[in-house]
Amino acid sequence: MVNKEILQEENKRWHEEHLAWMQEAEQWQHETRRLLALLYLLERALPEHSSLLNKHAILIADNEQLLSSSECDIDEHASVISQVQHLEFHRRTTWNDAIASK
What we know:
Layout: H1 2-101
C-alpha cells in the first residue's frame, strides 16, 4: 500500500513537472516568435536608417567644410586689415617724422 501511494505521488509530481515544462516550452516559443518579429522589423528599418545616417554624415562634412572656408576667409580678411593698419601706421609715422623735422 505504501509503495502504491509513493508511486502515485511520484506520478502526480511528474505530471506537474511535465505541465510546467510544456508551459515553459510554450512561453519560449512565444518569446522566439516575438523576437523574430522584432528582427524582421529591424531588418526592414535598417536600410532607411542607414541612408538617413549617411545623409546626416554628409551634412556634417559639408558644414565642417563651410566652417573651415569661413575661418580661412576670416583669416584672410584679418590679414588684409592687419596689412592696411600696418601701412597706415607707417604712413602716419613717416608723416609725423616729416612734420617733426621741419
